[in-house]
Amino acid sequence: MISLTVNGKKYQVDAAPDSKLLWVLREQLGLTGTKFGCGEGMCGACTVLVDGKARRSCVTPVSAVKGKKVVTIEGLPESHPLKLAWIAEQVPQCGYCQPGQIMQAAALLNEHPKPTESEIDSAMSGCLCRCGTYQRVKIAINRAAGKGKKP
Ligand code: FES
Ligand code: FES
């Protein structure tokens, strides 16, 4: 058994230490907001926070997050500035990549509450969107950071 803290709740999961966090979240904890894209750490669809930093859960063994705080898209309150900004700017198209985009943006704002344009570009460059929502993602991050439009 492995003890995990996800979205502020403690869980005991029966998983091999090298099981990937993504599948433990989705299949054992039913937290299906975190998406499977490439499975190789390249697209960002599976991004979650681990102790406030962005991690690709598809390549993170569950044993690596023992004793750490994991937050998934379900763990951000509906009133979170990023969620409000995403709605206000109508960011998603198909929506598939968006949980990962939001969690990557949350990690960025943890580190840089008022990010510059280049900090946004560099933080978000690994989150791919086949629908091409990049421009609106960026506008929404600025909005959530209180730059430009209000959240
Ligand atoms: S599914 Fe994890 S980075 Fe693509
Ligand atoms: S909104 Fe469709 S993949 Fe990003």
TrEMBL record:
Per its UniProt record, what Gene3D superfamilies does this chain match? 3.10.20.30, [2Fe-2S]-binding domain
InterPro entries registered for this protein in UniProt: 2Fe-2S-bd (IPR002888), 2Fe-2S-bd_dom_sf (IPR036884), 2Fe-2S_ferredoxin-like_sf (IPR036010), 2Fe-2S_ferredoxin-type (IPR001041), 2Fe2S_fd_BS (IPR006058), Beta-grasp_dom_sf (IPR012675), Diverse_Oxidoreductases (IPR051452)
Residues that span the membrane, as ranges: none
The domain of life is: Bacteria
Tell me any Pfam family this protein matches. Answer: Fer2_2
MF terms in GO: 2 iron, 2 sulfur cluster binding; metal ion binding; oxidoreductase activity
Q: Give the 2Fe-2S ferredoxin-type domain ranges.
A: 1-76
| Sorted UniProt keywords | 2Fe-2S, Iron, Iron-sulfur, Metal-binding, Oxidoreductase
Q: What is this protein called?
A: (2Fe-2S)-binding protein
Q: Which organism's genome codes for this protein? A: Geoanaerobacter pelophilus
Lineage of the organism: Bacteria, Pseudomonadati, Thermodesulfobacteriota, Desulfuromonadia, Geobacterales
